[in-house]
Amino acid sequence: MTRLRVYTCPHCGRGFAQGTGPIHTATCIHAPDMPDRVRAALEDPDRPGYALSVRGYSERAPQFAATSADILARAWGPTWADVARRVGLEPGQRAGTKKGTNTKAQKEATEARAIAETEEALQRDAELREYWSGGRGLPVLDTPRQLPDGRVAWMVR
Ligand SMILES: [Zn+2]
To answer: What Rg do the C-alpha atoms of the chain give, in angstroms?
Structure first.
Protein backbone atom coordinates (compact mmCIF):
# COMPACT_ATOMS: atom_id res chain seq x y z
CA MET A 1 0.00 0.00 0.00
CA THR A 2 1.31 3.42 -0.89
CA ARG A 3 0.71 6.37 1.34
CA LEU A 4 -0.29 9.22 -0.89
CA ARG A 5 -1.55 11.48 1.87
CA VAL A 6 1.61 12.43 3.60
CA TYR A 7 0.85 16.10 4.15
CA THR A 8 -1.76 17.36 6.59
CA CYS A 9 -2.94 20.96 6.37
CA PRO A 10 -2.31 22.63 9.74
CA HIS A 11 -5.42 24.79 9.30
CA CYS A 12 -8.14 22.40 8.21
CA GLY A 13 -6.55 19.04 8.93
CA ARG A 14 -7.18 17.67 5.45
CA GLY A 15 -4.65 15.27 4.03
CA PHE A 16 -2.86 15.99 0.79
CA ALA A 17 -0.13 14.64 -1.41
CA GLN A 18 3.25 16.12 -0.60
CA GLY A 19 3.28 18.26 -3.75
CA THR A 20 -0.12 19.90 -3.47
CA GLY A 21 -0.47 20.21 0.30
CA PRO A 22 1.63 23.33 0.84
CA ILE A 23 -0.04 24.98 -2.16
CA HIS A 24 -3.39 24.35 -0.53
CA THR A 25 -2.27 25.61 2.87
CA ALA A 26 -1.03 28.87 1.36
CA THR A 27 -4.63 29.83 0.63
CA CYS A 28 -6.52 27.50 2.99
CA ILE A 29 -9.77 29.15 3.95
CA HIS A 30 -9.30 27.96 7.53
CA ALA A 31 -6.06 29.86 7.95
CA PRO A 32 -6.57 32.07 11.01
CA ASP A 33 -5.78 35.26 9.13
CA MET A 34 -7.68 34.33 5.95
CA PRO A 35 -10.63 36.66 6.74
CA ASP A 36 -8.14 39.53 7.05
CA ARG A 37 -6.51 38.63 3.74
CA VAL A 38 -9.88 38.28 2.03
CA ARG A 39 -11.04 41.59 3.45
CA ALA A 40 -7.88 43.31 2.23
CA ALA A 41 -8.32 41.94 -1.27
CA LEU A 42 -12.09 42.41 -1.34
CA GLU A 43 -12.40 45.97 -0.09
CA ASP A 44 -12.87 48.43 -2.92
CA PRO A 45 -9.90 50.82 -2.83
CA ASP A 46 -12.14 53.55 -4.25
CA ARG A 47 -14.93 52.88 -1.77
CA PRO A 48 -13.71 51.87 1.69
CA GLY A 49 -16.14 49.60 3.50
CA TYR A 50 -17.56 48.22 0.26
CA ALA A 51 -16.75 44.98 -1.48
CA LEU A 52 -15.44 44.60 -5.01
CA SER A 53 -17.15 42.36 -7.54
CA VAL A 54 -16.08 38.74 -7.95
CA ARG A 55 -13.98 39.81 -10.91
CA GLY A 56 -12.42 42.71 -9.04
CA TYR A 57 -11.63 40.46 -6.11
CA SER A 58 -10.16 37.74 -8.30
CA GLU A 59 -7.73 40.21 -9.85
CA ARG A 60 -6.45 41.25 -6.43
CA ALA A 61 -6.65 37.97 -4.49
CA PRO A 62 -3.20 36.60 -5.49
CA GLN A 63 -1.31 39.64 -4.22
CA PHE A 64 -2.96 39.21 -0.82
CA ALA A 65 -2.56 35.40 -0.81
CA ALA A 66 -6.33 35.30 -0.45
CA THR A 67 -8.25 32.20 -1.46
CA SER A 68 -10.26 31.97 -4.68
CA ALA A 69 -13.72 33.45 -5.14
CA ASP A 70 -15.13 29.98 -5.86
CA ILE A 71 -13.90 28.59 -2.57
CA LEU A 72 -15.17 31.66 -0.72
CA ALA A 73 -18.62 31.40 -2.24
CA ARG A 74 -18.78 27.72 -1.32
CA ALA A 75 -17.55 28.25 2.23
CA TRP A 76 -19.11 31.59 3.16
CA GLY A 77 -21.75 32.07 0.46
CA PRO A 78 -23.73 31.09 -1.34
CA THR A 79 -23.89 34.69 -2.59
CA TRP A 80 -21.06 37.12 -3.02
CA ALA A 81 -22.91 39.47 -0.68
CA ASP A 82 -22.67 36.81 2.05
CA VAL A 83 -18.91 36.66 1.47
CA ALA A 84 -18.64 40.44 1.75
CA ARG A 85 -20.64 40.61 4.99
CA ARG A 86 -18.61 37.76 6.44
CA VAL A 87 -15.56 40.02 6.45
CA GLY A 88 -17.51 43.10 7.48
CA LEU A 89 -17.91 44.76 4.09
CA GLU A 90 -21.03 46.07 2.42
CA PRO A 91 -21.86 44.20 -0.80
CA GLY A 92 -20.71 46.51 -3.56
CA GLN A 93 -22.88 45.54 -6.47
CA ARG A 94 -25.35 42.91 -7.41
CA ALA A 95 -23.76 41.59 -10.57
CA GLY A 96 -20.37 40.03 -10.98
CA THR A 97 -19.22 42.74 -13.31
CA LYS A 98 -17.48 45.96 -12.46
CA LYS A 99 -19.73 49.00 -12.41
CA GLY A 100 -20.02 50.63 -15.82
CA THR A 101 -19.54 47.53 -17.94
CA ASN A 102 -23.27 46.92 -18.03
CA THR A 103 -24.52 50.38 -18.81
CA LYS A 104 -28.04 51.45 -19.60
CA ALA A 105 -27.04 52.11 -23.21
CA GLN A 106 -25.65 48.60 -23.59
CA LYS A 107 -28.79 47.10 -22.11
CA GLU A 108 -30.93 49.09 -24.52
CA ALA A 109 -28.80 47.98 -27.46
CA THR A 110 -29.21 44.36 -26.41
CA GLU A 111 -32.95 44.79 -26.07
CA ALA A 112 -33.24 46.52 -29.44
CA ARG A 113 -31.33 43.66 -31.05
CA ALA A 114 -33.63 41.11 -29.44
CA ILE A 115 -36.72 42.99 -30.60
CA ALA A 116 -35.39 43.25 -34.17
CA GLU A 117 -34.70 39.52 -34.22
CA THR A 118 -38.20 38.75 -32.99
CA GLU A 119 -39.73 41.03 -35.61
CA GLU A 120 -37.70 39.36 -38.31
CA ALA A 121 -38.87 35.94 -37.19
CA LEU A 122 -42.50 37.11 -37.11
CA GLN A 123 -42.11 38.58 -40.59
CA ARG A 124 -40.72 35.30 -41.95
CA ASP A 125 -43.54 33.46 -40.24
CA ALA A 126 -46.16 35.75 -41.76
CA GLU A 127 -44.68 35.35 -45.26
CA LEU A 128 -44.73 31.60 -44.89
CA ARG A 129 -48.33 31.62 -43.68
CA GLU A 130 -49.35 33.84 -46.56
CA TYR A 131 -47.59 31.54 -49.02
CA TRP A 132 -49.38 28.50 -47.67
CA SER A 133 -52.81 30.03 -47.25
CA GLY A 134 -52.85 32.71 -49.94
CA GLY A 135 -56.63 32.61 -49.75
CA ARG A 136 -56.56 29.69 -52.20
CA GLY A 137 -55.48 26.87 -49.97
CA LEU A 138 -52.51 24.75 -50.90
CA PRO A 139 -51.18 25.19 -54.42
CA VAL A 140 -52.15 22.07 -56.29
CA LEU A 141 -51.40 20.80 -59.79
CA ASP A 142 -54.55 20.96 -61.84
CA THR A 143 -54.67 17.39 -63.13
CA PRO A 144 -55.95 14.93 -60.58
CA ARG A 145 -54.74 11.40 -60.92
CA GLN A 146 -56.82 8.31 -60.30
CA LEU A 147 -55.14 5.83 -57.98
CA PRO A 148 -55.48 2.05 -58.54
CA ASP A 149 -57.82 1.81 -55.53
CA GLY A 150 -60.17 4.41 -56.96
CA ARG A 151 -59.18 7.40 -54.85
CA VAL A 152 -58.20 10.65 -56.55
CA ALA A 153 -54.81 12.22 -55.87
CA TRP A 154 -53.54 15.70 -56.54
CA MET A 155 -49.87 16.49 -56.60
CA VAL A 156 -49.03 19.18 -54.13
CA ARG A 157 -46.31 21.49 -55.34
ZN1 LIG B 1 -6.40 23.56 4.77
So the answer is: 32
* Residue 88 region by backbone torsions, left for phi larger than 0, else alpha for psi between -120 and 50, else beta: left
* pTM for the model: 0.56
d(CA 21, CA 42): 25
Ligand 1 centroid to residue 17 C-alpha, Å? 13
Separation between Cα atoms, residue 31 and residue 13, nearest integer Å = 11
Query: How far apart are the CA of 95 and the centre of ligand 1, in A?
Result: 29
User: What's the CA gap between 22 and 28, in Å, rounded?
Assistant: 9
Give the Å distance between the CA of 18 and the centre of ligand 1.
13
Distance of CA 93 to the CA centre of its chain: 16
- Residues in the 5 Å CB sphere of ion ligand 1: 9, 11-12, 28
Q: What is the pLDDT of residues 10-35, one digit of tens each?
A: 999 999 998 899 999 999 999 999 99
**Last residue within a domain, chosen from 86, 112, 141:** 86
In a domain? residue 92: no
